[in-house]
Amino acid sequence: MGERQGRAATPATRGLHPTPGRPGRPLPRAGRGTRATRAHPPPRPPRPRPPPRLPPPTTAPAPAPAAPATAVPAPAVEAAPTRPASRPATASGRARTSPPSGPGRPGRPVGKAAAAGRAAAPAPADPRFANGPLAVLDGDGIAHLVDGRTLRCPDTALPELVRWALEETTALGAPRLHPHGRDADPLLVVTEAAAGRLGLPSVLADRRGLRLPEDHKAVKQLARAKWQLTRRGFGPWARVYRAADGRRRLCVQLAVLPWGALDERAWPAAGTLPAPDLARALGAYAARVLTPCGSTAVTGLELMTALRPPTRPVRDRATGAWTSGPVTGSLTAPVDPAPCEAPDEHPVAAGRSEAEVLDEEAYEWIREPGLLSDAECLEPFAVGLDVNAAFLAAASRLTVGLGAPLHVHRPVFDRKTPGAWYADLSGIDLDPRLPSPFTPHGRRPEGPAWYATPTLAYAVELGADVRPLQAWIRPEAGPYLDPWYDRLRAAYLATMADLGVTPDLEPGAFLAAMRTHKQSDPVAAAVLAAIKATVKGGIGKLRERPQGAGYRPGQRWSALERPTWRPDIRAAVIAAARTGMHRKMRRLAETAGLFPLAVLSDCVVYPSSGPSPLDLLPHTPDGRPLPGTFRLGVSPGMVKHEGTGPMLWAVDLLENGHNPARHIKDGTV
User: Fold this and answer.
1) How many DSSP H helices and E strands does the chain contain?
2) What is the pLDDT of residues 327-345, one digit of tens each?
3) How far apart are CA 576 and CA 668, in angstroms?
4) DSSP state of 31
5) How far is CA 138 from the centre of its chain?
């Protein structure tokens, strides 16, 4: 979907070393009048912190494994004063090797360094979390850490296991991504063998609620030991906690693999990996993205909050007391959408007509067979191109609304103001061999409709005289998704580098590497699939619809009460992705006379004289890719080869109303 070419990044070294995301502020350097000791500021006076608000999960990145890596740094965090490093582990939890090292508070490169890819040397690991963010339990009393080391752990009773995970000598967890965020809770991944030892069933009997019954032995054990469960109960992703001990949060996350904690679609083959390999895969994901706290979609959404938390402590000058204040640039409170932005189930959508719905979705379009030329039909091949991390590329530098919408009549369109605009774009004349950029089905609009700002801005770019009749605008705006984009882009590129695909490859070498990259390392391939699912799922969660049998139409549902329930942001990302793809298709048509056969989301199919994208994509006389068109490469927004089929096969699909882009990858219908 998203077409924008991502910013260049310095490739990470091979191997699953953590590569954090967007850089933060630079740490002061020694010299030039700045003391070196300022890189580690003295503890600030303690400030009151409210008890942990549960059930919302707490997530943060993990420290790096022991092996050093050239990392793309995470946002700088100026954490609150921390406890001194814990002592070596006791006999019940002694690591067999020395603790790992990894990133602490990375700095922010400036000038040419930032343009070259935000590369910087990792800072020391947080000693509080010397054993990493998580452990995988193998059922033999062994906890496998992310760097290959092991710890002895209790494996027959849940209360003892939870207590062990929170001991300072166990040193599990991860530091916060933002100075006003929270450190990640320890994650214990329970394999099938470990579940049996802990008295957990291999299959959940409650397939609808996906939780253990309240009278189950394991739940009673936790209750007797004064541990509590969140409202989700004891399910695939269970959170066990107690009231905070002073400033220390007492909470442990459990991921029960036999209950489907790691979805096969997002984590392919994760269920078959040995415990050490699974720990390595989850550790790489935790270091580069976030410690998993649910599905990849949930983690994608939590990453937004971890990078831009809603509140920060503020001292009341009159009383001297600490209160909660908003964080600039964050989503600070839940807001209701405009009626056109809401899904059908939302109360504000009651009574609206179908024409009053903001329909910003991804492309699903095929060209009419009658618009195919004889020359196109005589081409031997149909070649599919797929945009890398399309949603992610679309989120880069995208201005979105931060507050509630404001309704205005006869507004003057401003491309810098996010919102939904009611305008008539049906009079814009475009080549019928291209899909319309204004509708997901690619057909010309039939009258006035609601559009997100990126769609209307593209209409202006095409030369249209845009005069909205009304709008729901959000004057308070900013690039909310930028840190999210930076971190996930760095994670994606680092994992692709682990698989042998780097930004410096020539087009031919890139295509060759892409043909075999998933076979080179199943662990890295699983991490790559999870990162991709995190991008798509995180954007989808911005408009999470009601779930569960207990929901009744017209009622509000729990997702509406979080600041990150924002269907308008989802619409803006999809609109930017779709119009960005059209911009490249239009450029290819104008400069090379090439028109697509079909488009599905982030995949486009063209007739071609040869089976490779190299036979399709035009170049300048000096051999460079034609500016403004699709470019082969690994970065988000660039394209890879999706598949090739016979042109006669593609034409037959078109004539029968099928989309060749849906089937070009494997040729099956």
Assistant:
1) 16, 20
2) 999 999 999 999 999 999 9
3) 31
4) B
5) 29
